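Assess this one:

_____
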Amino acid sequence: MQIASNRYDDIPRGKGQDDGSIFAMFLNESRYPPSQKRVSWETVRDMIDKYHFFPFSVKDPIMAHFPLALAIEPRLLPYAVANGFRMDSKYRDFVFRKMFENVEASDRKPEDIVQNVTELCRLDSTMFLTRTVAAEICMEARANDVGFNALKRLNKGGHLLFDLSVLVQDLLKLFLKTRSITSANAQNVIRFLYSEFPSSDPAVRLVVLLTVFLPANSLNNVAVATIKSRLEELKFGPVTKQDLYNLLIHPFTDRCESILNYMRTEMVSDQGHQGLSEKEINRVVNDVAARLVEIDCKGKTLKKLCDSFPSVHEVIARAVLDAHQIDLHDLPQADDTDACARFRVKLCRDTNFRPSELDYFWDSRATIAPTSSKNVEPEEMHGMAEAVDTPELGEIGQESLTTMIRQDELAPGRNRRRMSYFSSYTDFLSHLPLEPLLVGRWVKVEYGPRSSVAAVFMTHAILNENSSIIRDYLLSKNSATVPVTLKHFQMLARMNRPINYNIIAYLLSCPEFYRSEEEYLSQCEAIKRTEFKKVKNPSSISLPQVSVVIPQNSLFTRGRKRPRRNAATTIQSYAVPDSDDESKLMEVEEEVKPLDTKERREALNLQTWIKHLGEVLKTEQARLRQRKKRLEEENPGTIIPDKNIFVRSLSSELRLLRKHNRERYGHQPKENDVPVDEYDDDGEYVYRGTRTKKARVNNA
C-alpha cells in the first residue's frame, strides 16, 4: 500500500472507494438512465489510464466482467489495449447483446446504439455484429423497438456483414418445421417481420399464411373476416388455391374449418364465380385426404374429415391400395446395398424422421430459395441456418435477445463467456404437433385390424422400423392384432434390416402362421360371407332343445360309505429318494404331461414359424456365400463378411424362439394331437415329433 502511495500520491482508502468497488458500481448502473448514474465513464477511464486498472490473469474474476464495460462504453477499449488487454472472439456476441439489450428504465435512442457499435468495430477489427445476435434482436423486434430500429439503421448504413432482409427470410423459414409457430407471440413476431421485410419465397409465404389461418392457443376457428383483415394489413396479395392446399397438408393444421370456410366465400370457382360450391369442396377434401395418409401426424385431421365428409373413408382406402401397396418386386435388389439403405416407403415414417422443405408443399416441384447455409443437411440443421460468407457470422435460431442474456447471466461467474454457445434447449420432436394422432393408429381403428388398408400400413411400418406403430399393431391389449406374415421377413431380408423387437415379442405369443396378408384377408372375407348368410335367413335358425336329467339317488347319499384313504394315495415308486433315479423319473413325468387343445395349437403355430424362419435364414446365408465367393473372385484379397444385419438379427431371434419352445412345450405335440380336418389343406405344417434324448436314455 505504501509503495502504491509513493507511486500514485494520494490513494482513497475509504470503504467503497477502491477501484474494484467503483468498477462494480459502474457495471451495476449500466441499466440506469444517465441522470441516475453515480460513476461516469470518465472515472473508469482514469482508473484504467492513470492507475492501470486491469486483471492480472484470466483467473481473475474481473476478467469475466471486463467485456461488459466495453459493451457499456466502447471508448474504454484503447485504454484497456494499452494495458495489454486482448479481446477474445468468444466475448463478441456477449458484448453486442448487452449493447442492444432492452432496458425499460433507460432513455437510450437508436443513435446511441449505432454509435457504440460503429465505435467498437472501428477500434477493434475483430469485432462485428454476427447473424446470431441480429436474429435474436429480430425475435423481439416488437418489444425492443429501439434495438430493432438501430439494427435497421446499421443495415442501411452498410455496417453489417450480411443483408438484413436475407437474414429475416432465413429466420422466418425456420418456423416452417417447428411447433413454436402455434404460439401467439411467435405469430405476432412473424407477421411484424414480414411487414417490415416482405418476401416472395414460397416457404416464407406458407409460414405467414399459417400465422393468419391458425388459431393461436385457442379452440375456436379463425373467422373469415379476421383472415381478410390480417391479409390486408400484411399486403399479402391474392391467396391461390395452391397456397390453401399447402396449408391443409401442413403438420400443424389440425382444424380445417377456417380454410374451407375461406374457400367457400373468397376463392374463385372453376365457373368463375365467387366462392366454391359444395361439390368442389368435396373434391378438394378428397384430394387432400388422399395426400394426408403420407403425413403420419395428421390422424386428427383425417378423423375430422372422415366424420364430416362420408366419401373420405372410401377415398383413403382406394388411395392406399392403389398407390402404396408394396411387394417384393417393388424393392431394390439385395446386392444394391446403397439403394437398400436409402430406400424408405411413404407411410408410417419414424417419428424422428425430419421431412425436407419440399414435403410441406402440395407441389413438390415448388421453387424454394436456398437458405444462406452450406454444408449442412436439412435433417442436421434442427432449426438453424449457418452463414454463407464465413462461419464466424454465426448460426441463427428462435431464441430472443433477452433470453440469451439471461442464460449468460445465470452461468457461473468464473466460466462466464469463456465458451461460445448457441442455445441450451433442443426439442427433437418439435417438428410434430404437441399431441398427435398417428395415421397408422387411426387406420387400425377406422378400418379394422384385419383389413387390407391396415395390412399395407403394417408393411410400411416394418420397412421403416416404426416401433410405435408396430407395438400398437401387435401388442395392444385393447384391440385385435394385425398379423405378421412370412412376407415381412422376406422383405427385411431383401432390405438387410434388423427385426424389430416387438415382432419377436409377438411371435413368442404363438400367433397363427401366414405366408402373406392375402391368407388372413381371405379368411376374414369368408367369415363375413358366412355370417351374412346366417343373418339373411333368421327363420332357418333352430334353437336346440335342452333336457335336464336329475339323478334319482342324488339326494340320498347318506348311507353310502366313503372310499378308503389308501385308494387315493400315490403309486409307490422304487426309486431311491434324493437320487439321480428320482430326478430322471420326474423329468420323464414332466415330458409326458398332456397338452390341452389351445396349447397344442400354440405349439404347432410356434414350430411352424420356427421352421419357415429357419428356411428364410438358410436361403439368405446361401445367397451371402455366393455373393462372397463372387466378390472374392472379382477382388482377390478383399475381406467379405459372412453375415449381414438381417442374418445376425434372425439368428439370435431364432435361438430365442427355440428356447421358448423347449421351455414351454417340453412335450412336442404328435401328429394326432390336433384333429386332422383342421390341417387338411396344410399337411406340410403338421409336426412329426421324435422322442427326446432324455426319454431315449431312460428307456434304454
Observations:
- Residues 264 and 277 are 7 Å apart (CA to CA).
- The first helix runs from residue 2 to 8.
- Residues 373-390, 528-560, 565-571, 669-687 have pLDDT under 50 and may be disordered.
- DSSP finds 31 helices and two strands in the chain.
